[in-house]
Specification:
164 residues; mainly alpha
Length: 164
Amino acid sequence: MYEERIHQAVENFMAGYNCAQSVVAAFADLYGLDRKQALLVSASFGAGIGRLRETCGTLSGVVMLAGLETGSTEGDDRAGKSANYAVVQDLVARFRAEHGSSICRELLGLRKGAPTPPMADERTAEYYKKRPCVYMVESAARLYARFLTERAQAGIPLRAKMEE
């Protein structure tokens, strides 16, 4: 149902967008965000949040989308916040179960404490060959697509516009 969006997420990454941007931009229009807004709001979450190699950017993108789908807009809405947090914890658990970690540096096989200069890597054939990032983008987009599909099948009203 969302295959084109999964494909778009991968294309976004191959076009030079960071991992978080790639996932968020592929689904953002379902929530009324235009592409530029989606790219800007997710720009700082790539490479494990600002290239710090912390939480995987693809997962950060999924979490941002989950906020658009299940987030609360009222400060005193404890039930709404709790429901959103439950969704986020479930999505993170699924991601970790599939990949063994949700930490960028671990997924890349980097040692803890390795330097993380802010300079983005040049996107070369070697970059794509040695990094699992393209796969992670596809996997995260697929995870979010499954999440939306499962909610729809369970009869849970979606904020996202459904795909035909």
